[in-house]
């Protein structure tokens, strides 16, 4: 099937489904990201160290998010993806609201476990559904639009959560973000139809169910897939690891309140993040983007170049200078998400896509929800205790993380070497 034929055969409801699943992704990010805005008031009320609050806010969610994600994605490669997505959305939305009812450390910890279990079933079935709504040449563009949900979700998790916490305390923020997801879950169930798996691919032989082991073996044989997985994971370790602690950094080093930090970062996520994502989408729609090597090399360059302002950001003492640098850095956090998802969908067969997405999420979220928050928390405690850094200990910890963006850029650039051959082998 040619690109023109597959585009003409694409389901008519594809843009509606893309819009709805983008909203679902926004809720996924909002419920996950909101707690990073609330780290400081939660830490103060529960009397935790930086490493202790890092475990509660990051690791607690990730323990189940990363371990449950692959089994759920394997199921999504075999079963009804709309049903899986609806149940997952109901669960994580309800458990986010429960976070707002928690009265102590253990109640909040258990609620975060529930959020992680639910969110594990969000992105893999969504990206797999979209791969069957859009033909191969348009998948990077479609997944880039889908990635707009991250911008919207981070805005909700910053501005809305920060504002609610400023007015009514940190518990109110979880209630405000969790309850709307219950309504969206019913909209997904009633209006999104399950597409036929692999209907827009050039062959139909890949529609037989695959196993996790078979998927891992196939990925290992695809050099570009390995570099995309590593590049995307290190990029999230770098960018989202920094962003996880940035609200707290602004409150400590620049003396902002939780509401002020949320109001500062929220528009950056919404405006600059959306601009960065739309720029990526526009570039993915250009004729040059039909060559996956162009996309991979572009991702490598953008990631490496924007690592520079991410380093300077945590060096400067001026709040105004830090604000300017954040407006440069924040778009880079979103630029690579959609294109990497789109490229990965094209270098594996249709019956391995949800599982491959879950493998990326597993590695990436271990990096940015387990390793980055906990390492930064430990380093901050160490700098404060051993070097007397005080409130500036977090600044020094973040400065050690920032240069890892260069590492991510190298993997993304290198994936271009074999990506055309790997796409041909996958289809």
Outline the fold blueprint:
Layout: H1 3-9, H2 14-37, H3 39-46, H4 50-76, H5 81-99, H6 105-119, H7 123-131, H8 139-146, H9 148-168, H10 170-191, H11 212-221, H12 223-253, H13 258-285, H14 292-313, H15 319-335, H16 337-346, H17 353-386, H18 393-401, H19 404-414, H20 419-426
Please tell me about this protein's structure.
α2 (14-37) runs parallel beside α5, α12 packs antiparallel against α16 (337-346) and α14 runs antiparallel to α19 (404-414). The protein contains 20 helices and no strands. The chain is globular, with a radius of gyration of 20 Å. Helices cover 80% and strands 0% of the residues. It is mainly alpha-helical and 427 residues long. The model has no long low-confidence stretch (mean pLDDT 86). The chain has helices spanning 3-9, 14-37, 39-46, 50-76, 81-99, 105-119, 123-131, 139-146, 148-168, 170-191, 212-221, 223-253, 258-285, 292-313, 319-335, 337-346, 353-386, 393-401, 404-414, 419-426.
Order of SSEs: HHHHHHHHHHHHHHHHHHHH
Radius of gyration: 20 Å
Question: Can you tell me the residue ranges where pLDDT is under 50 for at least 5 consecutive residues?
Answer: none
Which percent bin holds the helix content?
Answer: over 70%
Name the overall outline: globular
Mean pLDDT: 86
Structural class: mainly alpha
Number of strands: 0
Biggest sheet overview: none
Number of helices: 20
Strand residue content: under 5%
Span between N and C termini? 11 Å
């Amino acid at each position: 099937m040619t690109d023109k034929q597959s585009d003409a055969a694409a389901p008519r409801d594809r843009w509606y489904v893309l819009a709805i699943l983008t909203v679902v992704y926004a809720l996924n990010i909002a419920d996950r990201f909101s707690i990073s805005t609330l780290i400081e008031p939660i830490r103060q009320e529960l009397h935790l160290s930086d490493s202790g609050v890092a475990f509660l806010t990051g690791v607690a969610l990730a323990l189940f998010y990363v371990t449950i994600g692959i089994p759920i994605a394997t199921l999504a490669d075999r079963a009804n993806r709309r049903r899986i997505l609806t149940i997952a959305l109901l669960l994580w939305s309800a458990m986010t609201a429960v976070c707002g009812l928690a009265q102590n450390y253990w109640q909040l910890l258990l609620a975060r476990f529930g959020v992680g279990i639910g969110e594990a079933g969000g992105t893999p079935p969504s990206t797999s559904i979209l791969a069957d709504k859009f033909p191969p040449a348009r998948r990077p563009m479609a997944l880039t639009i889908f990635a707009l949900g991250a911008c919207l979700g981070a805005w909700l998790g910053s501005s809305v959560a920060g504002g609610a916490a400023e007015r009514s305390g940190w518990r109110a923020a979880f209630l405000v973000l969790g309850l709307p997801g219950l309504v969206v879950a019913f909209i997904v169930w009633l209006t999104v139809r399950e597409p036929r798996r692999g209907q827009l691919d050039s062959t139909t032989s890949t529609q037989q169910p695959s196993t996790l082991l078979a998927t891992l073996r196939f990925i290992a044989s695809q050099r570009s897939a390995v570099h995309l997985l590593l590049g995307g994971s290190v990029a999230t370790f770098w960018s989202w690891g920094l962003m996880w602690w940035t609200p707290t950094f602004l409150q400590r080093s620049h003396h902002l309140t939780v509401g002020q930090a949320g109001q500062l970062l929220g528009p950056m996520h919404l405006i600059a993040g959306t601009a960065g994502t739309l720029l990526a989408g526009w570039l993915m729609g250009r004729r040059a983007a039909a060559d996956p090597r162009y996309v991979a090399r572009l991702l490598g360059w953008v990631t490496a170049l924007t690592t520079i302002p991410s380093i300077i950001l945590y060096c400067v003492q001026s709040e105004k200078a830090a604000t300017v640098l954040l407006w440069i850095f924040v778009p880079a956090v979103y630029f690579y998400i959609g294109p990497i998802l789109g490229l990965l969908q094209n270098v594996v067969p249709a019956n391995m896509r949800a599982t491959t997405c879950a493998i990326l999420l597993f590695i990436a979220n271990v990096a940015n929800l387990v390793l980055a928050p906990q390492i930064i928390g430990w380093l901050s405690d160490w700098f404060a205790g051993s070097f007397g850094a005080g409130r500036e200990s977090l600044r020094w910890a973040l400065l050690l993380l920032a240069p890892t963006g260069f590492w991510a850029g190298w993997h993304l650039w290198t994936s271009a070497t074999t990506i055309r051959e790997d796409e041909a082998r996958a289809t």
